[in-house]
């Protein structure tokens, strides 16, 4: 369903060079160069009442520091939302002006933007465009050619229901190399893991590492003739990680504008590049933030001043709404909102309130529930996937396991049952019925010699639960570099009802936080939950942290942890 009008660009046929990689313009290019500008207007996707279009302007005249493109519609098309330009419409006349961050176009350079529109009848492509008042390409009547293909197929908006189904998933070469360099690491180094955009600098690449475009280019190369999912983690909210310090971010609590213009907008520009339209881009949106607003604020014993600030100023909700709207407007992006895990939101006090906050965020800053493909649970956490040794309905000597110290009145004793139930709750508050869940199984394996082989003794609910539970943490609120953890289920599509995929969003072997304070320029603090000698706080019931010693900064390679994760993998590594 790709309709395109390339006009002048169509005449500028490009032919593959002898190597098949170099591209050479035919002589027609010389004629095109004398035209001040070309506009490529492509309808990328169209359904009965609406469409998505991508526009690329190429400037052949003097360099510009701002621009304004105009066209008129022959029909009743109306632009309804847009990205990477500010679009206004008066009757049939449309004006697209540059955003603050993409006003510059060098001679020979180009800029792309996109929009959604409504229409009825025929959605004819406009035939004339001006750039700063100068007429650009003239319709050559050829009807254009090539370009602008969209990925996927399936859903009426071009998205498939479950992006993982029938697709391979991008293997991050940087993580893969670190894993492969470990003894025994080649057993898992070809697994797909998340690419974390954890600060503005990560968009271009930190310390010579790969930036977002590098990853997307590498994904295109891996794709071959297959469908390919790329997994991104969007993680840089103002006042990030308000209940912990290990991943305190670079942006202060009030820096919402910087978040929008210097983080989300540039990411959206890259993801909207038609070059990447054939990839299925999965985003994990802002882990921990919205759950923190529910559980770590107000009169709760677990409240922190920083979380109260973020609740009061609204910048988590606004930031998430903006990210959803901006990224959700790109037809091949699938947004998954982070939804904590069962040991966080599984209590009655948290379950429904969390679903309501997600709905609030997903309907703010221009976002709608249609911008949400699903939710991800257990990101970078350690909650066991399926507990076979007891259920939440079991009793011991007439006492419910919900009264055990470990379960502590939670409704859920494992991650998968929580994810499925939370999906139902989310649909009941207004999310689409076809949302799917992801579960991060990177480090929830709990295999090895300490794995219980059957239920615990029925002396009391505590002996029963503690003797049987796979999750060997000291307390379910512990989250940093947990001692005894193993790799969990390998990434796979559609493993259970309502679950789009098991994923390794947290790259195994990357630390959750340093065991002692380490100076850095990454916005990382020192959280004592990563110190094995720390005796805890209200959020882990004042227990020992259970963290491995000698850990580096969050995100840095932690060889000893990676070795333990492989050793305790469940299912075991062969
Ligand atoms: C860190 C990020 C890192 C990510 C994945 C987070 O805890 O803050 O910097 O990229 O983990 O390892």
From TrEMBL:
CBM2 domain residues: 30-139
GO MF terms held by the record: hydrolase activity, hydrolyzing O-glycosyl compounds; polysaccharide binding
InterPro entries per UniProt: Beta_cellobiohydrolase (IPR016288), Beta_cellobiohydrolase_sf (IPR036434), CBD2 (IPR001919), CBM2/CBM3_carb-bd_dom_sf (IPR008965), CBM2_carb-bd_dom_sf (IPR012291), Glyco_hydro_6_CS (IPR001524), TAT_signal (IPR006311)
Keywords carried by this UniProt record: Carbohydrate metabolism, Cellulose degradation, Disulfide bond, Glycosidase, Hydrolase, Polysaccharide degradation, Signal
Signal peptide: 1-24
UniProt enzyme class: hydrolase
EC code: 3.2.1.-
Active-site residues, record numbering mapped to chain: 241, 288 (proton donor), 512 (proton acceptor)
Membrane-spanning parts: none
Protein name: Glucanase
Species of origin: Streptomyces mangrovisoli
